Amino acid sequence: MPEAIIAQAEEKMSKAVSALSHEFSTVRTGRASGAIFEKLHIDYYGAPTPMLQMAAVSSPEPQLVVISPYDKTILKAIEKAILASDLGLNPSNDGTVIRVPFPALNEERRRDLVKLCHGYTEQARVAVRNARRDANDAFKKQEKASDISQDDARRGEELVQKKTDSFIAEIDALLKKKEQEIMEV
User: Per residue in 154-168, pLDDT tens?
Assistant: First the structure.
């Protein structure tokens, strides 16, 4: 039974880390990336539709993203959505594709992005700690119900703590890597 609790805690912790990686992929760095358009929705015949479902996004150059919509009638809607977003990008429409140049980030914007990443990191840390707390509570309940011995409960809590420490270290490593990516000029 303790193995199931540990496995469940580990699964929750790994989901927190993968969610953090996903959030980091949507944060803009100096390089062009189509992933930042993931949260962008286009009004398509009255329904908000994710832009990545309506267009092919490619990055032919390090500072440029090209968006090729599958339906050419939505070029204006995509352009409008990019301008209305908080991405700070200026798309140009040539009638068939939209080119989005990525200007170099200034120092202030880089610091804002790093702060945003710190917020995402803290959310991931809290999720990992919550998984640890849930596992420890489960061990205490089982110990109280005499399903496991006190020694097994302690061993389980120690194992969960080791897993927590390793996941927190992984989260910190992801943050450090993302900070370097953002601050790179």
Answer: 999 999 999 999 999
